[in-house]
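Comment thread on ticket #2218

A.B. wrote:
> Attaching the input chain for the structure job we discussed in standup.
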Amino acid sequence: MTATAAIVAAARISSSIFVDGFFGYESADFQRAWHEAWNAPAAQVVQWSPIEHGKTQQITGFALHYLGRDPANARVLWIGSTVDESKKSAGIVKRAIE
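C.D. wrote:
> Ran it. Output below, let me know if you need it in another format.
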């Protein structure tokens, strides 16, 4: 298996690895911990973190990974501090899919 094939295989399983590959950077350890929480069975997570910690980029990538795993049945509820912020983030997902 080539290195690229190994990364693609790992990204199919791990939303954190997927996000790193999709956005082209390496997530911090605390961001990987977010993915572990989000991927836990029956997870219901409210993510509170300081500004400029990559929340939008991480959760956007997580949503893309989640939707890609089961596009027929996956559902995402996007709640932000304002309607405009939620629409902006949902728009990123929409453009990535299109």
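A.B. wrote:
> Thanks. Noting for the ticket: The chain has a mean pLDDT of 89.
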